[in-house]
Amino acid sequence: MLIRTLTILLILILTGLHTLTAQETEQENKKLIIGVKHTPPFIVRQQNGQYTGISVALWENIAKELRLDFEYKEYDLNGLLGALQQGDVDVCINPLTVTSQRVEQFDFTQPFFITNLAIAVDKTQQNKWLSFLSNFFSLQFLKAILLLLMVLLSFGILVWLFERHHNKEEFGPGMRGIWNGLWWSAVTMTTVGYGDKSPKTIGGRVVALIWMFTAIIIISGFTASIASSLTVNELEFAVKGPRDLKKVNTLAVRASSGQQYLENNNIPHEVAGDLKTALEQLANEEVNAVVYDEPIMKYTIRNLDLNSKVVVIPSKFATQYYSFSLPKNSELRSRINPVLLSEINGREWRVILDEYDLER
After folding, report:
1. How far is 55 from 112, CA to CA, in rounded Å?
2. pTM summary value
3. 336: number of CA atoms within 13 Å, CB side?
4. Is-contact 182 163, C-beta < 8 A?
5. Which end of the chain is flanked by fewer CB atoms within 10 Å, N or C?
């Protein structure tokens, strides 16, 4: 009886091991469906139908290490998210931003790239008069004017100290004399040459001589400082950051992290089907701003040759973590993560990023 029981247990164990091994072998031999969407520079669809780009290079290195057989299948963004949620794709290698909403729907690998949202604006939106007035009353401009007045007053007081007793008609005592000294130093510096005030004493003329040559040197510096504070900066636009988006006609790409940011912050906006369409609308002055992921937007602007019409402003906000995504509870995540971390910490990953002119 004991021998029969042990024999049955052994048979059950061997059968279970065989079934488990068969399932693992089947899983390893299964051809994975890798969901992609043309998203340069991370996923680039070539004319011959092949895919290249940052995400493709990273994934193919991981698949090679894990000996995974796969094929790519392309979707639009909404189709890709739907296929991922339904399990029609095994891995999505598009640079999806990890958000709280998406975490509830999908599994994500460790992030492989960290970036931020940015704003693109039309260069013709540059408000020169507004920028001029803003700069005219800026702290930099006021400092330059104040420093200039201090220098003028210093030399005016010096010449007044020498002239106040010997040239009372032109400089005189008290505040009137100091004002006349300031007037003289300003006229001398600007080389207007009215001649209504001129030093008569030796000390006054020495001060005047020093001031004449000094003014030639410093006037150029002050002129440059004042000019720079009044010059309209080429990046001085009506939109300087995300706070200004409520005041302009803003556009986002459907189902993107940019659209989610605008919705979360109650910023009115329109929606475009893809980034190319959005940027073309911006270049044609149909909208005032486009919100999207910075590296993808900059790369697309260069590729569409829109640099003369569209610019990404320096303001950066809303950090984005790019990860591969998988259907919920996928066993592939635990296998992919260690290899992914090894890859992005290796030299080849830096070479890939440099190839596409991206910082790590």
Report:
1. 9
2. 0.61
3. 24
4. no
5. N
Query: CA 263 → CA 24, 126, 258, 288, distances in Å?
Result: 44, 26, 9, 18
Distance (Å, whole) CA 89 – CA 73: 8
Backbone dihedral angles phi then psi of residue 247, each to the nearest 5 degrees: -90, -5
**What per-residue confidence (pLDDT) applies to 237?**
57
In this structure, the dihedral spanned by the alpha carbons of residues 335, 341, 347 and 350, taken in order and rounded to 10 degrees, is 120
Contact between 335 and 116 under an 8 Å Cβ cutoff? The reply is no
Strands 44-45, 51-52: parallel, antiparallel or unpaired by DSSP? antiparallel
Name the percent of the chain in helix, strand, coil, to the closest 5: 55, 20, 30
Cα 59 from Cα 77, distance rounded (Å): 19
* CA-based nearest residue to 312, from 43, 40, 123, 114: 123
The rounded distance, in Å, linking the Cα atoms of 191 and 158 is: 19
Cα 130 from Cα 147, distance rounded (Å): 25
Give the ranges where 190-307 is alpha helix by DSSP (H): 202-230, 257-264, 275-283, 294-303
| Banded pLDDT at 225 (limits 50, 70, 90) | low
| Rounded Cα–Cα distance for residues 293 and 320 (Å) | 8
Beta-carbon contacts of residue 268 (< 8 Å; ≥ 6 apart):
246, 250
Other CB atoms within a 10 A radius of the CB of residue 176 amount to: 11
What does the radius of gyration of the chain's CA atoms come to, in whole angstroms? 35
Give the total residue count for the chain: 360
Domains (range + CATH), the chain: 2-113+322-355 (3.40.190.10), 121-126+238-319 (3.40.190.10), 130-230 (1.10.287.70)
φ and ψ of 246, to 5 deg: -70, -20
> How many Å apart are CA 329 and CA 249, to the nearest integer?
41
Contact between 306 and 102 under an 8 Å Cβ cutoff? The reply is no
